[in-house]
Automatic annotation (TrEMBL):
Domain Maltose/galactoside acetyltransferase: 4-58
Protein name stated in the entry: Acetyltransferase
Domain of life assignment: Bacteria
Family annotation (SMART domains): Mac (SM01266)
Species, as recorded: Clostridium sartagoforme
SUPFAM superfamilies from the UniProt entry: Trimeric LpxA-like enzymes (SSF51161)
Annotated CDD domains: LbH_MAT_GAT (cd03357)
Lineage: Bacteria, Bacillati, Bacillota, Clostridia, Eubacteriales
Pfam families linked: Hexapep, Mac
């Protein structure tokens, strides 16, 4: 099994290999082009993201600048929006539901690293999925940690650090978010 296959399955993998490096480089090049385009070139920007993402609908919008690790693990919902400086470390699958709103400076992190310094130096890590369900609003400056599901129609207050699942139809805030 390749390191990429291990990563996608959520198993421990080594991130330093050539295949994953090349995948990250590909994403970096597309994101560089995306972030360099004139703001009026909306269709060209969206086409670049459609090429990058694992799944993307006809109608969605992401403000510049945007950052991600691989792109192919991002599954973006219909009519969903992300404001400036959205960062998605998509070593694991990230699902953004339909009609979701993501505020500025939101971080979505799927990567987990080994606790042992020796294992970290070897590039050993694993990824957990993140699911942001339909109708969710994520306030600006929020960080969403690996393995979290945010339930349908919930609102996450600005500046929150989401470390655990959030149920449907609630307002959750804080560090840790609850």
């Amino acid at each position: 099994m390749t390191e990429k296959e291990k990563m996608i399955r959520g198993d421990w993998y080594v991130s330093l290999g050539e295949e994953l490096f090349n995948d990250r480089q590909n994403a970096s090049e597309i994101i560089f082009e995306y972030n360099s385009l004139h703001p009026r070139e909306v269709e060209k920007r969206m086409d670049l993201l459609r090429r990058l993402f694992g799944e993307s609908p006809k109608e969605f919008y992401i403000e510049q600048p945007f950052r991600c690790t691989y792109g192919y693990n991002i599954h973006w919902g219909e009519n969903s929006y992300a404001n400036f400086n959205c960062t998605i470390l998509d070593c694991g699958r990230v699902t953004i539901g339909n009609n979701a709103m993501i505020g500025p400076n939101v971080n979505i992190f799927t990567a987990n690293h080994a606790l042992s310094i020796n294992e970290r130096m070897e590039g050993l890590e694993y990824a957990d999925t993140i699911e942001i369900e339909d109708g969710v609003w994520i306030g600006g400056g929020t960080t969403i940690n690996p393995g979290v599901r945010i339930g349908k129609n919930s609102v996450i207050g600005s500046g929150s650090v989401v470390t655990k699942n959030i149920p449907e139809n609630v307002l959750a805030v804080g560090n840790p978010c609850r």
